[in-house]
Design goal:
The chain is of the alpha+beta class. The chain has one domain: 4-Layer Sandwich (Penicillin V Acylase, Chain A), CATH 3.60.60.10. It contains 5 helices and 13 strands. Strands 3-4-5-6-7-8-9 form a 7-stranded antiparallel beta sheet, covered by helices on one side. A 6-stranded antiparallel beta sheet has the order 10-1-2-11-12-13, with helices on one face. Helix 3 runs antiparallel to helix 4. The longest helix has 16 residues.
């Protein structure tokens, strides 16, 4: 997962909205989102190489999403798959802050990463680069391949689009297709606004849009997860074919009763 926009407690009728793109090499084998046979109630795509996932939710009200922290100099090809961390949180029963605090001691085994996790109405973030566990108050957050809310052009563009959709949608209505359209934005960033993450300017340009499309690497799927105030949730995934091929597949998977609805969603100070 390389881009996540999280709207937490922004609207009382939709207290949790997640819109995310997964970027990956097209050759990496993947299964589309489905309920895992060995873990009933866990809904996620599956990375068939690492046997983990990039984003998932459970019927018991847990969700997690992961992005890689882009730093080619720190990459270890023998490190364990970071997708296993998403799977581990979804199958655990600890509250988010405690689980992330325990993760600190072993985070260095993995290549650099960021995590967003939620359960029991609380959402927390963690980056292996800072080891900071942060309980998130209401707001619209953006996460790509740097720290939470780092103002990369793609983060600002996607976060702004989601915020506008939430503002203009009438009370009681939120159309996932609008969020999927925001995730399909292929507008590149101007060179003057490109970050410098050590991959060279050509790759920085290619990776700068919300939706990435290169011959070998790009946005493989887009996911929208929307929870209303009654606990009714909808998981929508759009799987996109590589450039030069045709087609996309959309899956809409409802949760009639989801137990992780944020309450106040704001930590006490």
């Amino acid at each position: 997962m390389c881009l996540v926009v999280l709207a937490l407690g922004v609207r009382p009728d939709f207290p949790l909205v997640v819109a995310a793109n997964r970027d990956e090499f097209y050759a990496r084998p993947t299964e589309a989102a489905a309920f895992w046979p060995e873990a009933p109630g866990l809904l996620a795509g599956r990375d068939l190489r690492g046997e983990g996932t990039w984003l998932g939710v459970t019927a018991s009200g847990r969700f997690a999403a992961l992005t890689n922290f882009r730093d080619p100099a720190a990459f270890d090809p023998d490190a364990p798959s970071r997708g296993g961390l998403v799977r581990a949180f979804l199958l655990a029963d600890e509250e988010p802050e405690g689980w992330l605090t325990c993760l600190r001691s072993r985070a260095g085994r993995y290549n650099p990463f960021n995590l967003l996790v939620g359960a029991a109405g609380r959402v927390a973030s963690f980056s292996s680069r800072t080891s900071e566990v942060r309980l998130l108050p209401p707001g619209v957050y953006g996460l790509s391949n740097h720290l939470l809310d780092t103002p990369w052009p793609k983060v600002e563009r996607a976060r702004g689009a989601v915020a506008r959709i939430l503002r203009r949608s009438p009370d009681g209505a939120l159309e996932p297709d609008e969020l999927l359209t925001a995730l399909a934005d292929r507008t590149p960033a101007p060179d003057a606004e490109l970050p410098d993450t050590g991959v060279g300017v050509e790759w920085e340009r290619a990776l700068s849009p919300v939706f990435i499309a290169t011959p070998a690497y790009g946005t493989r799927s887009s996911t929208v997860f929307v929870v209303d105030h009654k606990g009714s949730a909808l998981f929508v995934e759009r799987t996109v074919a590589p450039p030069g091929t045709e087609g996309e597949i959309r899956r809409r998977i409802p949760f009639p009763g989801w137990d992780g609805v944020p309450g106040a969603a704001a930590p006490s100070s």
